[in-house]
Amino acid sequence: MTLRVAYLINQYPKVSHSFIRREILALERLGVQVQRMALRGWDGELVDAQDQTERHQTQYVLQRGLFLLLGATLTVLFQHPARFFRALALATRLGWRADRPLPYHWVYLAEACVVSRWLQARGAQHVHAHFGTNPAEVVMLVNALIGISYSFTVHGPEEFDKPQFLRLGDKIRASDFVVAISSFGRSQLYRWVEQSHWPKVKVVHCGLEPAFHAVAPSAPPEVQRLVCVGRLCEQKGQVLLIQAVHQLILQGSSFELVLAGDGEMRPDIEALIDQFGLRDHVRITGWVSSDQVRSEILAARAMVLPSFAEGLPVVLMEAMALRRPVITTFVAGIPELVRDGVDGWLFPAGDVDGLAHALRECLQTPIERLTQMADSAHQRVLVRHDIDAEASKLKTLFAACARESRS
Would the pTM count as exceeding 0.90? Predict the structure, then answer.
């Protein structure tokens, strides 16, 4: 019997959500039928061809606005009034002292009514959400409406910043299981639920497809170039990186830093680049496709990610898989993957002097030693983050939920 699973994401596809796409495609290679649903995400330009394909396969809850929400809500109310009012009471409770005002949670119930009808129409046996924010609440409400089992993946850092306001404990208790992407993430979920629920928390890593790193092995180049891949935002620490670059340039170093990405802090970062006179040393690419990310990583001797808060960044895995050492921080799940002095350099988050020291070390390290570190990083990430192996773990968990729902 074919296993039919639905995925619900807040916005899909999205440039920064390629790891979800990889997970879905890997499940389908394993014979799982995956129904894609997103609350929003149909607007905006998509650079990646695979994302464009995913868009056409995704159902969007908010695409038709209030008409779809109201119609589904009234249908569920009149057909199953007891279930509806039970879910309404749950949504109201979840909205009490939450991160968003109560009316938002009533909207989540309306979204759950839409999702419930779609799940029943396609015969889904289990629904899985990515992120412990509103997608997890919507599938929790779906469970109250139609009884389908649900699970969700917690990535961080947003969920760990406000777990009580997100009612993370309630979402875990009502779920069949919860996925953490690192041991650190698992430990944070343990904090917000009773020990009796700890066995529900499973570690399943984000993974990489072999096609991403299926390129001829190449040693880090002699060129003095570093790349930082990620959204230009507060938590990624690019402002600190510009300060460290300025420090090294004043000390006589000469190199190029490529910031591959875009985001809300781009004007601030560009202003800082101009203030320090670094236009000849720092280049910002704007949004880039997966192929462009790979090209930028391969053109650099190392990947830099000076994050203040993280889950476990997929871009570090990508750089390591492409045989590039990484320079990053001791936060969240990163030290579980990156070994200081073996696969790259780790420094304390927020420490501009520590970052400048790590950058200098990388730039001065002989290519022979960089190549050894790159090979070590490659082997490390392939063992820990193979997408087909990780998807197989998920399939086993989904199948167990489906069996229990039939019994």
Answer: yes
